[in-house]
Design brief:
The chain has a single domain, classed as Helix Hairpins (Orthogonal Bundle). It has 4 helices and no strands. Helix 1 runs antiparallel to helix 2. It has 81 residues and is mainly α. Magnesium ion (MG) binds next to helix 1 and helix 2.
């Protein structure tokens, strides 16, 4: 399922290849996002993860790794801040 998720993500990227983001076909973007969410939720289910819990945990961890006063306006990784 992780492979399928990666492939579907690549299909989403392909919709933006060589064009401005606003020129991507929104119906196809919607379809690829649906594919991505489907595989992501299936993968989470396989491991017994609570999707809301793991997303909130990750947001909390990111907030700790990337404090706003140090990371706002920069693309540096947390170990370079
Ligand atoms: Mg697809």
């Amino acid at each position: 399922m992780a492979l399928a998720l990666s492939i579907e993500s690549a299909e989403l990227l392909e919709l933006f290849l060589w064009k401005k983001a606003e020129d991507a076909n929104t119906e196809k973007v919607k379809e690829e996002l649906a594919d991505i969410f489907s595989f992501a939720f299936l993968l989470a289910e396989k491991y017994g993860f609570d999707v809301k819990e793991i997303v909130l945990d990750k947001i909390k961890n990111n907030g700790e790794k990337y404090p706003v006063d140090k990371s706002k306006g920069t693309a540096k990784k947390y170990d370079e801040l």
